[in-house]
User: What shape does this take?
Amino acid sequence: MMLNEEVRTTCPYCGVGCGLVASRRLGKPKAIVGDPDHPANAGRICSKGSALIETLDLEGRLLHPVVCGMETNWETALSDTARRLARVVRDHGPDSVAFYVSGQLLTEDYYVANKLMKGFIGSANIDTNSRLCMASSVAGHQRAFGEDIVPGNYEDLDLADLIVIVGSNAAWCHPVLYQRMVSGERAARPRSVVVDPRRTATCDGASLHLALKPGTESFLFNGLLADLARRGVVDRAFVERNTEDFDAALAEARSSAPDTVAVARACELAVDDVERFFAWFAENEKTVTLYSQGVNQSSSGTDKVNAIINCHLATSRIGKPGMGPLSLTGQPNAMGGREVGGLATQLAAHMRIEDANHRDIVRRFWRSPTIAERPGLKAVDLFRGIEEGRIKAVWIMATNPVVSLPDADRARAALLNCDFVVVSDCMRRTDTTECADILLPAAAWGEKDGTVTNSERRISHQRAFMPPPGDAKPDWWIVTEVARRMGFAEAFPYRSPAEIFREHAALSGFENGGSRAFDISALAALDDKAYGTLAPVQWPVTAEAPKGTARLLGDGRFFTGAGKARFIAVAPRLPVHSPDADFPLVLNTGRTRDHWHTLTRTGKSARLSSHSSEPLAEVHPVDAANLSLTDGELATVATKWGETVARVRFTPDQRPGSAFLPMHWNDQFASRARANAVVNPATDPVSGQPESKHTPARIIPLKFAWHGFAVTREPCGNTMSEYWVQARGPGCWRYELAGMGTPADWSFWAQSCIGAPERQDEWMAFQNTAARVFRFARFNGSRLEGCVFVSPQMPGVSRSWLASLFAKPRLSPAERVELLSGNPAMADHDRGEIVCACFGIGVRQISQAVARGSVRSVEEIGKLLRAGTSCGSCKPELSAILQRCLATPGDASHEMHAIA
Ligand code: SF4
Assistant: This one.
């Protein structure tokens, strides 16, 4: 082994698909930085990517197979899995089993799972968590283009004169791409329009923000189509020659959104703003429309996608430099999963399950004994199938549906009642592994090898740079071994991901003849070495285009039967469930800046957890007043589907009548904060994607007898409180606590909460019974082991300063004196809550610099404190803090809840 090595790989988080360089020394990972040679990011990475090195520890890992709660060996676990799956298929038929897989899987993992289910078990009951984020885009592409094709690429953002961002907080969810849009080296920054009910970080610096009524995007884009026709901007020759059904789409647009006044009324926007948007779109040929979950996660998501695509087709702005619709994928390999047929509604290699010819092609290529003949159950329906007992065995791979599915309590109940649940995961305890009969330890990012495809069709290699720990194995290996034990050894001969990739590439070209855009057959002959060094490449990759294809559809050829694009007549529909007197708010769910999915990886990082350490329910101050809410207090977020608890944050960034809840927290990190437990399960009738952005809700103040904050070196075994949220700190764990009942003896309570009964540690205490203020700290010698602060209201202590004390091997006498006050004597020792995760710069440092007159711009903050000068993800927040500080000098309240 070389002393120092570098491995090029790909980020495991969002669909931007940034290239990374992992360096290791003596076989151990030392640093992870952006790959300057990767076309997706040219060396840039965001806060999540730059903190990856902190997430590689083995804490909480599933290291050995577990059957019925007992650790066992692979042979037992694989044989049991295969035997029980085969028995269910034999007794109840192929449709009685299901796989629920993930956009976190590599393409090779996905390929074998899909092959086993659709080609050998003979059912299409394999669906993926990409159903929750991408299905409406997939369906929209298929309807318009005949195939799931993203026409353009990221370079179009550099070339565009107008960028329209619909339903996407790209500044937080696709940060490197967002920074590429706003800090490009171009002479003039492009105009940008953000279409989003919420004012997000992405609105910072936008030319126009259209804070439309939730769910009304189809009115807006129908109105745009009608307006383009009115202005004579429609490319009639292209429409005539290369498309179908334009007249029907235009007639429907004119009927539902005849003019700007009607659009403004339906979307609750100012007429002038609608007119400005329409005029800009008409004037700028080089327009890119980006869209993401705000469009997709809707009961009319597919229609919204087509309403957007209609406008690009009408102006023939598609597949050409600087223009086109661009769907941003949420997950690192959402598109790779679509390529191999990871969705229940399609076959492998973009072939259609309803097409007998396609079924025959795949069956012959696989030499499969049986092939699924009809679409399988989509995610929400699949879990209904489990609930109803139609599905008797389910294998869940690399995902956490008990947290991420809508109506999540119902999903959990279904799993707990299912006859046989297998979960492959790299973590031992998740909300979903708790429902499993068999746990199979999967290799994690950094330990496995394979390919992923990002939002611009770019296939990149994710390479291993450390060995899997314990018995952990790559997912493709696990599926292959189960398939062999089910009697399909001949069809699953794989010994490496390279072998699987070659087969996948060959299938894409098999009897293709140019009928399918997804064709990477030129990669089918890669030998192991060439596969190992495969450079990022955009599909199609064929003999005619061996270096890949930057753009598609620009030649006017589409992949429908007639070779023409299809306009879709979109009759706008409002969300399934409307607010009413009992549930007056529209609840939206989504991501925070520095966390990912269900916290299994980002929850390990102190840096990432410092930005948002607790779920906040964001509401407009007007709604807060109507609902008698108090800023910073805890509240129940209730819907017809369930309840969750979060801390209320007032913000004018919410539209009145709307609220926002982050999706990440779960039972491993909080007492009761699963956002999806309250999300309604309505789905889009075409794509099956759930309506995660629109659930009628009520927020109800929640009264507690006491509130607490604790920091401990080891995780608290028992927080002794009804409400708790835990977050990683530097060498410690942070807890927000609250209780309904008052303990009879607070020192006994503290010993139970932050104590180590077996040790004779030293304790410090401050107790003011009259004021109901109690503070305790535990020391091992001069090393701080834990501290807890309790008061009738949320303790006003410096959380970041207290957490920072745990990074020290010992406390000085002065620090011990300061400790129980909860705040440092010197104000500048308190950074405040962290804003810039890369350099650990807190809100108080920034506000103090502004107060001293040292900084008056985001650039000056960067020069003085370095904040915002690495990944740039925090720049919109720096700007917001700066504005607040300049507007109200001397007002310390801007240091509170500065973090959204
Ligand atoms: Fe990873 Fe951030 Fe790049 Fe997304 S933008 S791929 S999370 S580094």
Remarks:
- The CA atoms of residues 726 and 807 lie 18 Å apart.
